Structures
1.
Amino acid sequence: MSEPVEDLKTTPLYAKHVAAGGRMVPFGGYNLPVQYPTGIMGEHKWTREHAGLFDVSHMGPSFLTLNNPSGDADADHAAVAALVEPLVCGDIKGLKPGQVRYTLLLNETGGAIDDLMVARSPLFPGSLYIVVNAGTKDNDFDIIAKAAGDKAKLTRADDGALLALQGPEAVAVLDTIVPGVAELGFMTYAPFEWNGTKLIIARSGYTGEDGCEILCEASMAEAMWDALLADERVKPIGLGARDSLRLEAGLPLYGHDLDETVSPTEAGLNFAVAKRRRESADFPGAARILKEFGGELSRVRVGLFVEGAPAREGTEILDASGMVVGKVTSGGFAPSLARAIALGFVPPAHAAPGTQLQVSVRGRMQPAQVTATPFVPHRYFRKAKS
Amino acid sequence: MTTKFTPDHEYIRVEGSTGIVGITPYAQNALGDIVFVELPSVGKVLKKGDEAAVVESVKAASEIYAPVSGTVTEVNAELSGNPGLINSDPEASGWIYKIAISQAGELDGLLDDAAYADLTK
């Protein structure tokens, strides 16, 4: 367990995980902790109650920056946004300085190549901060760099460390170490100075809780890890609880609930298909996605409360009469609810909350009821409107 | 009273012609928090190596195999409401099922304490 498996990459925090008793597993090409001695259940609950620290350095942070900015902030933003918008369904042009937006990289038929975060730099005109998923990052970066051509340069930042601190006490903890973080609004980011190094901190995450994601130079990663864990409100959290937290939050996981066949509409991500983009129908797969917006949908993502054993990915979903109508794409046990939950795809006729369906687990039928997601309410930070 | 082990980390504690089956402390630690147990039905006839039960952790399901052939005589109903007993007390209150052993000779093919300790070193 102490030596990294060959061919697997390690993050700058590998030694810290091993020292903390992390059970290391291969994930997205990296050697990462699935859990620490606390265990998935305890780590999950700790994050919901206090603050959980996650190493998400396997993900793909990057910067896309205009080669020849004019100096006019809005014109430069419009120019860099125009390079990315043909790839995604979100409104990138409309981002305010420092604003972070969830969007999807789509193929020509409207299927998801990836889901990602795109943010407008609060400081540098014509610069975007883009964070993509681990398993897809090489392809994503190729696509973005190609679209940027000679107009902008894509700089990968995935040689550093990306930490997520999530939970109701996360921001209060981070603010004691990096003063000013508590001023960030939800889904915004800013650069900060800490011990002579620059941090990029976004008020975002994938657990349904308030929290931040911190991009840090590799050389400072261990010091940041230690500084955060020195606060008794913080525990390290592995991939196991990261998955159960995002499942309870009803958030799709790429490669499971999203793939190249699934459109944002099918995945219940209509909010990510910007109104302006729909009106101009200028995104990949617009023909299909606009039809789906009009109601021509063959399947949609639903949440399920499953009675009995957890229904894992791949489990068949059947209607009340026993006809197969869909498949589970993510499923497991929800520690905060002490019951099994799942995400899956079914035809719209079976998708209304309250619909009684069944899942076939090891050949046995178990009741499953369609429910609205999130399973556990999001508790994101919302600034009072002044 | 003897206890034997399988290489899949089940134990069988033999009391006369009955065996009490569960998973070892090593196995429960490797699986992590158990959240659901699928018990066999009483009267089920098992051959050595058959799938007898399933324990589920937050992340995954794991099959529990029959260490020997026989008939299920009793299951630990406590586990339905409190599957975590397998984590907290795997060798006593976290037992899974009892089996009337039909071929006692099969016990000889299982691991004894020392051999199992060796396996999990």
2.
Amino acid sequence: MSALLDFYAKHSRLIDQIGVNAILALSLSVSLQAGQLALAQAAFMGIAAYVSTILAVNAHWPLFATIAVAVLASTVVAALLAYPVRRLRGVFLAIATIGFGEIVRVVANNLSITGGAEGISSIPNDATTPVIYGALVLVGLTLFVLSRTKFALAVALVREDEYAARGVGVDVGTIRTLSLALGGAIAGLGGALYAHASFFITPTDFGFQRMEQILVWCVVGGVTSPLGALLGATVLSILPEAIRFLADYREITNGVILLAVILFAPGGLSSLWRRGTIRVRV
Amino acid sequence: MIAQQLLNGLFLGAVYALFAVGYTLVFGVLDILNLAHAAIFTAAAFAAFSLAAAGVPLPLAFLGAAVLAGIMGILLDRVAFAPLRARNAGTLVPLISSIGVAIIIGAILRGIYGVDERHFTVGGLDTAPVIRLGPLTFTTVELTIFLAAIVLMLVLSWILRATTLGRRIRAVAEDRVAAALLGVDLERTIAATFFIASSLGGAAGVLTGLEYNSVTLDMGGPIELKGLAVIILGGMGSVTGAVIGGFILGAVETLAIAYGLSAWRDAVLFGVMFLLLVARPTGLFGKRALRAA
């Protein structure tokens, strides 16, 4: 037991990061499962992080109240974003949502309430490990319950063949809006927790690089299931720490692993589990 | 004052356009978004810096770096895109593998050069003669950069319009399967496309480095996303559109700075891009304009 506590004391920061990262990866996996390459997760995350931080720092709201309002805000923004992009698919949807993310970042950079480029500091560090993992379990349970409903069936149908989905009476627009909003809600939860697990936040925390990172977690883990997102976020969060001895080669290793997974394990790490072997196809 | 700003916008826009034509060429031919384009842009700038530091005259260092960037483009295709093409992997996966290559290139550059900013010490960039033309002032360096970008874009336009290779590239862009049936060697044509696109991106990197006489690891960051906006403005896959988009961006940026709106500049840029995508997903000049390039 004390060995376990020592381990926790030594790695608590990393453990918290893994939990937050897993929530963020899950949020993107929701829209990827609906076949939407919507890359605004970092923006939803940022919106919630700022809302929650401002309520905590300026208005001294308790943690859970700030999280609730923050998640509401990111959900509403995500649902509203779904409307203008409803006709965009594939790369065009990706670019439009990347553009949206940049707009959010520039706005955060220029408003006084968000502290401009310096961001906001001295955020109460009250997102403890139990809070973060409680949230992760909540998200996991929600996604699990949803996966047993007709909603999941409709989502899968929209992903596989939008026209067939329309043909059997699925309201494609509503499914897309709901999955984007759900992704926005989960990203918002991740963002609020991220803020409360850091001492300060700045607009660059929620820029395109963050978005790339979340996307990489999902793809490396496997986009076909939420488990892939979970696995990808966990493995890639631990990896930089685990290969610290490689010092100068750390970054390059990240790139190589990413490429290797894409080339040799197209379904992501989670697919290796099921297949048992790595089939090399180049 | 406004004439001077527009001239500055023209200089800036030429480099944006050069970057964007390579970006859009790959999209037009392969329908993939190459997020390693900006990494090659940066790598070429460093290569030119090293060549110049080793005593190679600037024009030769420029050409050498552009050729090197072209070769990197071919390698990029072989490593990150060709295997995926072979199994019809869709649009998401190539986008990610290009991020992987971008990370690797960035890590290698950091390993070689560290994080410090580099300056070209030869060629007298900072003491270049100033030309005054009525109310306009500019340096010979700015003029040379502008002319180099224009010449390269004209060469690209000539290749696409008047050579066999250009016809093959346009055929592959139009319909890959039909082109293959007609005897076009797909892989070689795609390799050539990557060489051209990446050498132009690399050239844009060198010119950007010369323009500000500064080469940094993160110099590719802003242009990566702005380049996206430019090719959307011009219509993805349209080379002419990318050139026009580049000049529009250059003008808008310098005017925004002149009128004190620089803080909101990028929000406006991406806002316009967003609205354009929503209203007209194929951009101002249509998607398949590569045919008529």
3.
Amino acid sequence: MTDDSGFVADEPPAGVDRPRLDGPEPAKVFGVLFDAYARPLHRYLARRVGQETANDLVSETFLVALRERYQYEPARATVRSWLYGIATNLLRRHVRQEVRGLHAAARAVGTVERHDPGDQSRVVERVDAAVTARRLAGALAALFDGDRDVLLLASWAEMDSVEIAEALGIPVGTVRSRLHRVRRQLQAQLSAPGGHSEPTQARKED
Amino acid sequence: MPEHDNLYRMWPENELDAALAAFRSDVPTDGRALAAARADLMAAVGAPHHERKPMTVTEQSTPTITDPPRTHRTQARRRTRRWLVAAAAAAAVATGALVAPSLPLGGRAPIDSAAAAVLTAAAAKTGTGDPAIQPGQYRYIATHGWSGRGTAGPDGKHIEYLSEGLQELWVPTVWSQQWMKRTSTTGNRTWIAGTEQDAKAVGLPLEGPQQGPAEVAPCGDFNAKDDGREPCVGMPAGWQMPTEEWMAGLPRDPHKLLERLRADAPGADEGNDRGDVELLVYAADALRTGLLPADLRAALYRALALVPSLKVVEHSVNLDGRTGTALGMDTDGERHDILIDPATGEFIGERQVITRTAGAIKPGTTIAYTAVSTSTVNKIGTTPHN
């Protein structure tokens, strides 16, 4: 190794989203990968299991990727999908922590108040947002683990069905049907006859 | 609250997306942690064959690669969780909120002698062996799991109920033969915050009775098809999904078994902020399956007797009609208990109890529990009652 300390992220690896990872200069390739994907990956993971665990998971994801680089087949997945697939696998060890966190969020004591002397409509909006977040947390906690993966890869990692299929190693049709089902499920759960008309009200000004 | 009818209105797509987009959108990025991760990566690139890497890493895999042990375990866990293990696992309180572990992972504290005595006595009772089962008969394992479904009302009021799920498993005397599994929701529920009326007012779905299809598979390998595997070949195995082979490979010496449990359960470096509670959770995962042979159950009790933070919480707890001693560990506002019938040494279930007010839930409230019972039947698909 000549450049393991003096690496500079100069150019993306050839093939950009499907680079070869088995070349002679892993330091270069992996440096570029890290700089391109670590930050959004960290954000995704932190939203799921908290920042501390995300710190570890990002590090582990890239170390696993490095170790498994010869198994990466550019034809089968973009490198981003592959990395999120590794991260999703690692995340499974933290499912309990994630679900606990979601339950805790769902039953968090409301810290917001409705009797703010200031702008009343703004306060109501904040209350609604907090309530919505709690309801969403409860709904996310109740999902099957695989469904939650698909939903959050789509929503938070902004992946399309093909990328999610690549990441999880499942057929794209399965991803689509899961996504459809889980969205229906959440919409049904979050919708509230009468009681939850607030999202609409809160948006009337924009 | 505005007036409302019972019209079931779906949330519009864009509002779901907006809610998802807003959820925890304020997570900070830790530049220093990223820099450290990058440095680790670069060091690993330079290192001769990855000796520098943490142990967990060498045991990981990716979705496209054949499975090392750890992947088996995590898959097994995921699968197991697909149904009511939610009960066992879910609900606890730690917010992922990233506090340093409050319990010693190394176990410096003295062993609780009362807990050790209960476990040792249970091990002695258990050690005599499993009830005889004739060729052609099946062991029928019924697992009733109660887990939380909750939400917040528009006024912020916390609403939560426990919904009962039932898993029935028929295990042949020779494991390579056909098993059957049936999961259902009974429609039974108990309210731990708010009322049914509150739930209806905010549109929280109330789970009604629902019978799942009966699945049949040799070796209990119900996921082979999903995994694209031949049944019984390359089966995932672990604490959440014990196979005969995996169990045969576990040490029966209590110290060695505890060591193994510690190695397999997530450690502090894997985001475990609940210390030794995870040991209990893993042990309970395995015990809850009802598949452990007597010698292994006994060894596991003796191993748990060595865990210092495990305490006798309550004698004579009634769980789904059976009475046992609760042994538990407490972290961060929630206690995880296992329940053992001292008369027989049988594992009768587990529960999670809130120990610090959480929303509308008061300390002492059970927020999830699972009760297991095992019997023998003559035919697959039949229950002891029919």
